[in-house]
Predict the structure.
Amino acid sequence: MDYRTSEGTAGPRGEDLLPASVAAAVKVVIVGGFGVGKTTMVGSVSEIRPLTTEETMTQAGVGVDDIAGVERKTETTVAMDFGRISLNDKLVLYLFGTPGQERFWFLWDGLFEGALGAVVLIDTRRLEVSFDAVGRLEERGVPFVVAVNAFPGAPVHPTAELRAAMDLPDSVPMIDCDARDRASSRDTLLALVRYLQSLHTVTPETP
Amino acid sequence: MSATGKAWDEGGPERLYAVDQNHGPQPSPPRPVELVSLIVARAEPEPGTAPEQAAVLRMCQFPLSVAEISAYLVLPVSTVTVLLAGLLEDGRVEVRAPVPAAELPDPELLQAVMHGLQNL
Ligand SMILES: Nc1nc2c(ncn2[C@@H]2O[C@H](COP(=O)(O)OP(=O)(O)OP(=O)(O)O)[C@@H](O)[C@H]2O)c(=O)[nH]1
Ligand SMILES: [Mg+2]
């Protein structure tokens, strides 16, 4: 491990300190394919300058040049942007924006465990880049809403068409957003919370 | 485990976001930290303290998540977890656990999140 002289001063800037009264945190994960606006959304609603955390993933090697009986392990570092929103003097929300390479971040178990839910960002010009995220959230049982990020020149499709293309059940909310806009990003998070609230009022029956 | 033999306060962690909660100081048994566990220093670094542990103690004068510590130290979360385990063992830091995972988040919690976002 290397030490830098700045080591002693590493830490939050004065304005980024949380009050001593903060007792617990919750988290929401922002997912979607590469370049759909995840980092932008984290940055637009965060009260702190977005930070980057990382984790080292060990994966059983996929047989490229496997020698029989020898299991190869691959180490990958996955970096994740995140931001923070103080909800009141006791509760704080962390927002994690996953990197584009989803096959790695779904290995990061601690990321989705305990998350309130997720926002799946989509770009209507490249819907397919977010398919994988939707599938994996469904597999894990993480509740999510889909936010259609408004890119200039992106074709406008009726919601029903987008739903069909993404094979989304009617119960999953789909909203328009502009990830660059703070109010719009906040409204997207509010839509997720309202959806979570609605899950309480329906009987959760497995089909 | 509770040495006093007191029953687990089942309603405890879930209710931390309630505004009217009145929490006295309570010793908590060490538990594993998570990405958004909040860490608060309870001691000053001493001359023998490992540099990274000293850095954690210095930056956690106020609550700070494991993710933030990882970001400021530029260390993987798993490395930070190991550093914290050493500090937790002898009570040099306190952990404030995240609101526990539940199939469906508590309505009161969702209400608090909703209000917080509306005030942005
Ligand atoms: N017009 C427009 N541009 C956007 C919007 N959101 C993001 N962008 C731009 O799109 C590009 C990609 O955005 P990022 O936020 O980096 O996307 P990302 O999902 O984090 O990308 P990866 O981390 O590489 O997967 C950037 O140049 C943004 O400025 C949006 O709502 N509207
Ligand atoms: Mg990004």
Chain B has a mean pLDDT of 80. Chain B has one domain: 31-120. The pocket of guanosine-5'-triphosphate (ligand 1) is lined by residues A 32, 34-40, 97, 99-100, 149-152, 178-180 (CB under 6 Å). Helices of chain B lie at 51-59, 66-73, 77-89, 107-118.
